[in-house]
Amino acid sequence: MHAEAVGRIEDRLRAAGVVPVVELPDAELAVPLARALLAGGLTCVEITFRTPAARDGLAAIHGAHPEILLGAGTVLEEEQVDAAIEAGADFAVAPGTSAETVRHAQQRGLPMLPGTCTPSDVECARRLGVRLLKFFPAEPVGGAAFLRALCGPYRDVRFVPTGSITPATLPGYLAIPQVVACGGSWMVKPELLHAGEWDRVTELAAEAAAIVGAAR
């Protein structure tokens, strides 16, 4: 059953193409943000546990827009897995691979994308039975060229690269067959959210969706 759930998440991530990665400053901004992203054609969002607003923000989006594929990001420990589930998240993402946290998510039935950066990371995740992985931090460690090389010996895994990706570098990642979607924060920068510039968020989301459409 867990494998089926992961498969469904992978299909929805592939359809979305881009995952906006959000540091939410205030839970009250969650629903307007979700509406702005949907208006721009992006159907997925990841709310990171980097701010205290994460849990309430996830729950607000889940309640108002259950059609959105909802990710909980920066999930570092078992308690955050539980919080993500309680808030209605569809999947969890971590910057690294903690065997204990991944196993807890598996036991709870929550699809989780652990973070990987090196061949050893990938092999650690594979030993846990995970085949859908985050690649982080994508640009600082070598970008699409590095990831393409990493894909060579690991043909059975898929990646969601995240980390300093921009509209200019996005197509290079999407051209890699094993890339399901890319995480990005340029359309959801905290200053845009603080200022309530929802039209700008929608505009940037639409540009991202257009890049995905052209690349695929």
Describe the structure using short key phrases.
216 residues; alpha/beta; six-stranded parallel β-sheet; three-stranded parallel β-sheet; 10 helices; 47% helix; 15% strand
Task: Describe the protein's architecture and organization.
This protein is an alpha/beta fold and 216 residues long. It contains ten helices and nine strands. A six-stranded parallel β-sheet has the order 5-4-3-2-1-9, sandwiched between helices. Helix 3 runs parallel beside helix 4 (78-87). The longest helix has 18 residues, at 198-215. The protein is globular, with a radius of gyration of 16 Å. The two termini are 29 Å apart. The model has no long low-confidence stretch (mean pLDDT 97).
Tell me briefly what this model is.
By secondary structure, this protein is an alpha/beta fold. It has helices spanning 2-16, 30-39, 54-64, 78-87, 99-108, 119-127, 143-151, 170-174, 190-194, 198-215; strands at 18-22, 44-48, 69-73, 91-93, 112-113, 115-116, 132-135, 158-161, 182-184.
